[in-house]
Structure formats: structure tokens, C-alpha cells
From TrEMBL, chain A:
InterPro entries: FAD-bd_PCMH (IPR016166), FAD-bd_PCMH-like_sf (IPR036318), FAD-bd_PCMH_sub2 (IPR016169), FAD-linked_Oxase-like_C (IPR016164), Oxid_FAD_bind_N (IPR006094). Pfam families: FAD_binding_4 (PF01565). This is FAD linked oxidase domain protein. GO terms for molecular function: catalytic activity; FAD binding. Keywords: FAD, Flavoprotein. It comes from the Bacteria. The lineage of its organism: Bacteria, Pseudomonadati, Pseudomonadota, Alphaproteobacteria, Rhodobacterales. The keyword Chaperone does not apply. Residues 1-186 form the FAD-binding PCMH-type domain.
TrEMBL record, chain B:
Keywords: FAD, Flavoprotein, Oxidoreductase. The keyword Zinc does not apply. InterPro entries: FAD-bd_oxidored_4_C, FAD-bd_PCMH, FAD-bd_PCMH-like_sf, FAD-bd_PCMH_sub2, FAD-linked_Oxase-like_C, FAD-linked_OxidoTrans_Type4, Oxid_FAD_bind_N, Vanillyl_alc_oxidase_C-sub2. Its cofactor is FAD. This is FAD linked oxidase domain protein. The keyword Flavoprotein applies. Residues 51-229 form the FAD-binding PCMH-type domain. It comes from the Bacteria. GO terms for molecular function: FAD binding; oxidoreductase activity.
Length: 377, 484
């Protein structure tokens, strides 16, 4: 099951054993590697080393809808996994984005890349992030050791949870070879409530009201003066939830989008289509939702545009602000698209936390060969 | 005392006990240090009561700063520290050693902040699980993880063990509901991990701490995700004449797209015990499922209708719907009294392995065979939706050798869980109980990397000693740590 377009250049081992041998050799010679799944997720910037792709370590190992469990090798393309789950009425509930448009790439997004980046889209608000659905991992560490952690069952507290560390480490602690994920039923009915001509303050107020209800709003995003709420359900659920929300938010008037329009809109919001087609720097900023309006306004004052997701908990900023200026407004900002900017993509850690992180990196990757400089400077 | 070995206490530390206690008294309030053997005896065990050992001293801090001060002293004087929440661990996670200082979170009882607009609560970790939801009730919110010990167990212990509960099929376990943690490291240094934002960038150290069984630090404050209370919830009871068909029903419900908040399972041994104890009016059959769904009345009716359709195709012995709160309580009554009911049958040990849901029928069959081989009765009551089994092995503590036989039987069951693709522990933790089985689940290098992680956080290996990692495997690490 080798994808049609494996990574164009660089190293592409075909098995976990081959990958282990390759990294062991690079460990011995202290030669750095740039880790990529399909190469569609992370703008590494000036990171040294030869590109190592896991695209050829591919294939679904098992999928059990009755157990809500998927096990797939890291290089398995997302566009192989998503239709397979959809055919059983299930999905990856954390709704990973397709970043190709916004990053101007044309690789094949892989499940390993999703996990390495802890990529989580609008439904993260309700369902949790990728890391919350990760049941187990197999990976190769910086010495070439093949390791495993977790398993395939939904409740597992056996030993330390290294999956949490690996998920979101962008390949810097180890190279994923296999992931086990929890899948969830995909509710069949959906609609969207759109509130137009609102300020960012009004948008967050709408989100706060909606998210304090038990109606399981599965998307709360804002862009271009419109606040959007996604409502889903099974049987009579969706109509009931929609009507209750409309009632609660009166006298505001809302446009109601049907199922097909909802799918299209949220794919667009998820993939940040509004920030594609430009190469201005793009920042991902995590804030307490009630601070989103002030953060959004301070970022806009630097020039450029913002949009919100996760009910205000996530602010996207696309604009020319300098890294210093952006991080002054938003200490938790990550640079997703560089747009010519140098410097670290990830926010600095507090000194004692940085010491722990450095200690962990030293144990997982003693020679510092896995994506050096990506997260650790 | 039975099969599980603990290392010999360090004679040097025991000899220095007066100085250690004096150093702790020096920096902590008068009533925060306990060293009188009459009083330390109250801390000699947790809920795995077969193992007991009074600690050298017990510290009961009221603030993060006091925890940090005690940790610093213990680090400087090279004294092992056993963190303790409410002591409800079933795996010996809070079992002391004679040369340790217990640092308990019991007096860290403040609710620091409730923020419904941003949907979190911030607490000191000595608050009980149930009191968190009680605090939230007037606001229309709740905290989702609900371990069955929730009346007593603390958030600190929930975080250390990554506790689950009956409702985690829908809402996840502690790690999915923890947003931030204030952690005191072994040196007494205090770090903030996570926060009120949703998943900050950088390595997920908070995710690593959650479920680490006190091996990496002590969590003194926590920011927890809170959820709006559902409009309503109703259980149904479904009886089957075989384990296999009950297991099939679980898989079909999950596959159907209905996501219940809970699917609980009880077998015939458990049903009979519960009936005799609680008179819940359960059917006399091979297996009972309790399935709970949430929502508005119309939503609940719809979901129950779907579940009935699924169950009917499998010829249940009984399908009982609750029409009101009293009937709902009656359905839950037996399940909630299951552990008490089993206690009346004799002594028992409660296991906690997880298996893939599709393997439930086979695993139950094999447990039955093992029960015959070992000559001990077993009852099964567990969270079926996620495959987290709780076999209760009945034995007689007064009969010489019976506990050892029960432990051997338990170990066989846990090995079986791993063999069918599951794990040793779903929510109770490894503690001492499953420590020496870790090699069954993880190969040498898999354990080595976990111990390397502990080594980063706890270079002197003072935190919660002799737990989680097999003693043989951890010996080289501990010996090296002695020189640091």
C-alpha cells in the first residue's frame, strides 16, 4: 500500500525495521534528519538534515468499528482512512485540517503526520484533540530503538503515557511507525447557524452562551464579521438543538445552513481557506476564550487579519507583525507559516519546564538528530 | 503478608528518623507533621489492604509552598516520598515503606476559581472528586470523570492514576478533562503545566504527569474542564441468557452510532450477590447490561428505541426501560451496590484489565475456565463499552494460602487480557499489584524508556519507590541514582 506520490526526495524506508537501522546508523554518525510524513504539516524552516519520510511505512493494520478502534501505519494517507471510517458511519472526531492549501504544499497528508502534529480541527472544542484519541504508538527513537507505548484499548493506565509526549512532538522525540486511534460515530444530521455583521466581542458572547448549553455545539468559529455555530445530531436531536439555540440567542437573527452547506463551510474553516493564496506569516494563538477579543484586536493592530475557532480559544493571525510583537500580545503563539520569518516556530517554555523538556530530549534523542532546532530553541 | 516483595528499608534513613522529622517540623506548621507511631499507623495501607507498612512520618500540607518545602527537605536528606490522596488505590499505589515520608494532599481543599464562561474549575487537589461536581451543580455544570470511589477519592489521586469511571465511554478519563496542573518536583521546584488554554504548544508534560502514579511529582493544583449538565439521563436494563450475546449487543450498540454515556455489565455470580444484598429486582440470567443515554426526553426516547431494536434482534431475556427517576435509580441500585454485595460473600480482590470489546465473550469464557482451574469463584462487573473488566476473585483471607492463590489467579487473568490485545490496568494503575507483570505488556526497551523519563524528573529515584516498574528492571537505575 505505497501511496501514489511518496516523498519526492530523501530517505523513505519501507518498514519499521529498515527505519530502525537507518536511524541507528545516523545516531552513530551524528547526522541530523528532517522527519516528514507526507510533508504537508509543519513548516520546519531552516532545520538541518536530510529529509526522512515515513510515507512508505503505510497501510491500515486493523479497523474495528464495533470497538471504535483504528490501527494504521504512520505513512497511511488520510484520504485512505477517512472514507473507510465514513463507510461505517464513523470519523476521527478531532477533525484534522488539511493544511496543503494554506502551506502551499502538494504532498499526501498521513496519519503519522497528524499525530506528530497533534493536528486538531474545529471539533476539538467538543471532542478533544488528537492526543485525546490516541490509544497507542510504535516509534523509533533517536538511537534507532523500536519502541511501543499504550495499546489498542480505550482505557489503559499501564505505565507512563508516552503517547502524550510523542503526539505534538513533531517527530523530535521519535519517528512514528504505527498509531492506534479511537474512532467515533459521525452524527448523521448537521446544520450551521450563522450570525452576520457581528464584532469579535459579540461573536465570543454568542459562543459563550451556546457552549454553556448541553446541546453539544461541535464548532464555534468566527471570520469576516460572521460567527458560526455547528449543530449535529441523531434522529430528532439536531432540530431540537437548533431550535433551542435559536431561542436562547434571540433577538439575534441567524441564517441556517443545511447539511451540505455545513460540510463545505466547516471544511473551509478547518483548512483556513481564508488564509490560503498568500504567503504572509500565519500564527496560531491559544488563549482563554474570554481574552480572545482583546487578543484579536491587539493582533489586528499589528496589521493583517484574524479569525477564531474553538469558541474563541484559538485565534489565527495572518499578518506582518514581528515575532516579538506577536509574542508580546500572545505568549502561546506558534508560527505555522513562516512567510519569510526566521526564529523559533514554537513559543519559549518557562525555564524549569525547558529543563525537563531538554532532559527528555536527551533521553529520546541523545545525539540530537531528530528535527534538531524545530522545537528546542 | 504475601507475594509482592518490597525493598528492605534503608537502615541509614531509619537511623536518621529523628533528624528528618525535626527538619520537617522546623519548616512546617506544628500540626502538619505526624510521626507518633500510633498516628502514622492510620496511613499504613491504601485500599489494597493485604499490604501494610507504617511510614517514617506523614506530612499534611495546606499549600503548594508547604508541599514544596517538604519535598525539598526530603530531597536534601535523601528520603523517599510516597504521595497520597485519599488512599483509595486498589493497586497499592499509596503503600508506604518504613523509610518514607508520606506527603498527603488531604488538606489541600480549596476551590480556587470557577469560570463557566471559559468552562473550567481550578482546585487544590485534595478536594474529592464528588465535591467538584457538587460545587459546579448550582452553575449547571459538572466534572465528567466519576470513579466509583468518588465520594472519598481526591483529584490528586485521580490525576496520579488517570482515573475513569462509568461515564468515560462518552466523556473520556481524567487526562481528557485535565487542562492544567501545578506540579511540585522532587527538588521542591514548582512548575505550571498546561493552563486555561486548550492544549498549549510544546511537549505535553501535563499529559505525561497524568497517570504517572506519583513517579514524577506531586500535583497540588489542577485546572479541570467542566461540561454543561445534560438535560436528562435514563438507563435501560437488558438481560441475556449468555455472555457471548451480551458482548455482541455491546458491539452492535457502539456500531449503530448511538453513543451511550455508559454500558455496564454484570454476570450471574454478581447478579445473585447483588439480588441477595440490595434486592434490586434484577432478572436471574447469565448477563445484564445497563445502558445509559442522555439528552432531552425526546432524544432519550429515540436513542432507547434504537437500543431496543438492536437488543430485540438478539432475543434478550428482559428489556427494562426506566420511565422516571425512581425507576432509573432502581436500575442503577444493584450496580452501585455491587462491590458492597460482593464483600458480603467473603474477601475479594478486584482486578482491572482492559480487553478489546470484541474479545469480551472469549475473555469471559477463559476467566470461567481459569476459575475452575484455580478453584476460586469469580464475579464479573465492569464497564463493557470500553472493555475495562473488573473480575472480583473471591477468597478467604483467614485460610492460609488462599490470598496467594487468588493473586495467582488474578495474574493469570491479567496475562490473558494482554494476550487478547488488551492491557494490565484500565483505571486502577500498576502500583505494586501489577508491577511485576509489566514485563508481560512491555518489552525491555519499552520499560527502559519509561524509566529514563522517570529519571529525568526524579534523578534520585525518591518518588513513590518500588511501584510501577519491576524491581529487577529498576535496580540499575536505582543503584546509579544513589550516587547523585
Amino acid at each position: 500500500m505505497i501511496p501514489d506520490n511518496p516523498s519526492r526526495a530523501g530517505l523513505s524506508p519501507a518498514s519499521e525495521a529498515e527505519l530502525g537501522a537507518l536511524i541507528a546508523e545516523r545516531f552513530a554518525t551524528r547526522q541530523p534528519l528532517r522527519i516528514a510524513g507526507g510533508g504537508t504539516r509543519v513548516e520546519t524552516g531552516p532545520v538541518p538534515g536530510e529529509v526522512l519520510s515515513t510515507a512508505a511505512i503505510s497501510g491500515v493494520v486493523t479497523y474495528e468499528p464495533g470497538e471504535m478502534t483504528l490501527i494504521a501505519r504512520a505513512g497511511t494517507p488520510l484520504d485512505q482512512i477517512e472514507p473507510m471510517l465514513a463507510a461505517e458511519g464513523q470519523a476521527l472526531a478531532f477533525e484534522p485540517a488539511d493544511m496543503r492549501g494554506v502551506l502551499g504544499r502538494n504532498g499526501t497528508p498521513t496519519i503519522g503526520g497528524v499525530v506528530a502534529a497533534n493536528a486538531s480541527g474545529p471539533r476539538r472544542l467538543l471532542a478533544g484533540a488528537c492526543r485525546d484519541h490516541l490509544l497507542g504508538v510504535r516509534f523509533v527513537d533517536g538511537q534507532g530503538r523500536v519502541l511501543k507505548n499504550g495499546g489498542r484499548v480505550m482505557k489503559n493506565v499501564t505505565g507512563l503515557d508516552l503517547g502524550k509526549l510523542i503526539c505534538g512532538a513533531h517527530g523530535s522525540l521519535g519517528v512514528l511507525t504505527e498509531v492506534a486511534l479511537k474512532t467515533l460515530p459521525h452524527l448523521p444530521d448537521r446544520c450551521t447557524l450563522g450570525f452576520h455583521g457581528v464584532t469579535v466581542e459579540e461573536a465570543v458572547a454568542i459562543f459563550s452562551t451556546a457552549l454553556a448549553t448541553p446541546f453539544e455545539v461541535s464548532g464555534a468559529a468566527f471570520r469576516d464579521g460572521s460567527a458560526w455555530l455547528r449543530v449535529e445530531g441523531l434522529g430528532p436531536q439536531m432540530d431540537y438543538r437548533r431550535d433551542r439555540l435559536l431561542g436562547l440567542l434571540k433577538p439575534r437573527e441567524a441564517e441556517v445552513l443545511d447539511g451540505a452547506a455545513t460540510v463545505a463551510l466547516w471544511r473551509d474553516l478547518r483548512d483556513l481557506a481564508h488564509f490560503a493564496g498568500t504567503d504572509a506569516p500565519l500564527w496560531r494563538v491559544l488563549v482563554k476564550p474570554s481574552l480572545a477579543p482583546a487578543t484579536a484586536r491587539a493582533l489586528q493592530a499589528l496589521g493583517g487579519e484574524v479569525s477564531l475557532d474553538w469558541g474563541g480559544g484559538l485565534v489565527w493571525y495572518c499578518g506582518p507583525g514581528s515575532p516579538q510583537a506577536v509574542r508580546q500580545v500572545a505568549p502561546h503563539a506558534t508560527l505555522v507559516r513562516r512567510g519569510g520569518l526566521d526564529g523559533p516556530a514554537f513559543p519559549p517554555e518557562a525555564p524549569p519546564v525547558a529543563r525537563l523538556s531538554a532532559g527528555l530530549r536527551q533521553r529520546f534523542d541523545p545525539a540530537g538528530i531528530l528535527n534538531p532546532g524545530l522545537m528546542d530553541r | 503478608m504475601s507475594g509482592i516483595a518490597m525493598p528492605r528499608p534503608d537502615a541509614g534513613i531509619l537511623a536518621r528518623a529523628p533528624q528528618i522529622v525535626a527538619a520537617l517540623r522546623d519548616i512546617l506548621p506544628e500540626d502538619a507533621v505526624i510521626s507518633d507511631p500510633e498516628e502514622t499507623r492510620a496511613y499504613e495501607c491504601d485500599a489494597l489492604t493485604a499490604y501494610r507498612c507504617p511510614p517514617l512520618a506523614v506530612v499534611l500540607p495546606r499549600t503548594t509552598e508547604e508541599v514544596a518545602a517538604a519535598m525539598r527537605i526530603c530531597h536534601e536528606m535523601r528520603v523517599p516520598v510516597v504521595p497520597r490522596g485519599a488512599g483509595t488505590s486498589l493497586a497499592g499505589g499509596a503503600l508506604p515503606t518504613a523509610d518514607c515520608v508520606i506527603i498527603a494532599t488531604l488538606r489541600l481543599r480549596d476551590v480556587l476559581e470557577i469560570d463557566t464562561r471559559n468552562r473550567f474549575i481550578r482546585v487544590q487537589t485534595g478536594v474529592t472528586n464528588l465535591s467538584v461536581s457538587a460545587e459546579l451543580e448550582p452553575h449547571g455544570f459538572f466534572y465528567a470523570p466519576d470513579p466509583s470511589s468518588q465520594l472519598a477519592c481526591t483529584i490528586a489521586g485521580n490525576i496520579a492514576m488517570n482515573s475513569g469511571g462509568a461515564h468515560c465511554l462518552k466523556y473520556g478519563v481524567t487526562t481528557n478533562n485535565l487542562m492544567g496542573a501545578t506540579v511540585v518536583l522532587t527538588t521542591g521546584e514548582v512548575v505550571e503545566l498546561g493552563g486555561v488554554e486548550m492544549g498549549p504548544a510544546g511537549l505535553d508534560l501535563m499529559g505525561l504527569i497524568c497517570g504517572s502514579e506519583g513517579q514524577l511529582g506531586i500535583v497540588t493544583e489542577a485546572t479541570l474542564r467542566i461540561l454543561p449538565r445534560p438535560e436528562g439521563a435514563r438507563p435501560v436494563l437488558i438481560g441475556f441468557d449468555g455472555a457471548e450475546v451480551a458482548g455482541e449487543c455491546v458491539a452492535r450498540i457502539i456500531r449503530s452510532g448511538v453513543l451511550p454515556v455508559a454500558i455496564e455489565y454484570m454476570d450471574d455470580v454478581c447478579l445473585r450477590a447483588v439480588e441477595a444484598f440490595a434486592h434490586a429486582g434484577y432478572p436471574d440470567c447469565a448477563a445484564v447490561l445497563i445502558v445509559e443515554v442522555e439528552g432531552s426526553p425526546a432524544e432519550i426516547d429515540h436513542q432507547i428505541a434504537r437500543i431496543r431494536e438492536i437488543a430485540d434482534a438478539l432475543n434478550p431475556v428482559e428489556f427494562r426501560e426506566s420511565r422516571n427517576a425512581d425507576e432509573a435509580m432502581a436500575i442503577w441500585k444493584g450496580r452501585k451496590s455491587a462491590f458492597g454485595a460482593m464483600g458480603r460473600l467473603g474477601d475479594y480482590i478486584c482486578l482491572d484489565g482492559t480487553v478489546p470489546v470484541g474479545q469480551l465473550p472469549y475473555t469471559l469464557k477463559m476467566i470461567g475456565e481459569l476459575s475452575r482451574q484455580h478453584g476460586l469463584e469469580v464475579a464479573n462487573v465492569f464497564h463493557a463499552g470500553d472493555g475495562n473488566m473488573h473480575p472480583l476473585i473471591l477468597f478467604n483471607a483467614n485460610k492460609p494460602g488462599d490470598l496467594e492463590r487468588a493473586e495467582a489467579f488474578g495474574n493469570d487473568i491479567l496475562r490473558l487480557c494482554v494476550d487478547v490485545g488488551g492491557c494490565l490496568t484500565g483505571e486502577h494503575g500498576v502500583g505494586i499489584e501489577k508491577r511485576d507483570l509489566m514485563g508481560k505488556q512491555y518489552d525491555g526497551p519499552d520499560l527502559e524508556i519509561q524509566m529514563a523519563v522517570k529519571d529525568v524528573f526524579d534523578p534520585r529515584w525518591l518518588l513513590n519507590p518500588a511501584k510501577v516498574f519491576p524491581l529487577d528492571a529498576s535496580r540499575p537505575w536505582r543503584e546509579e541514582a544513589a550516587d547523585r
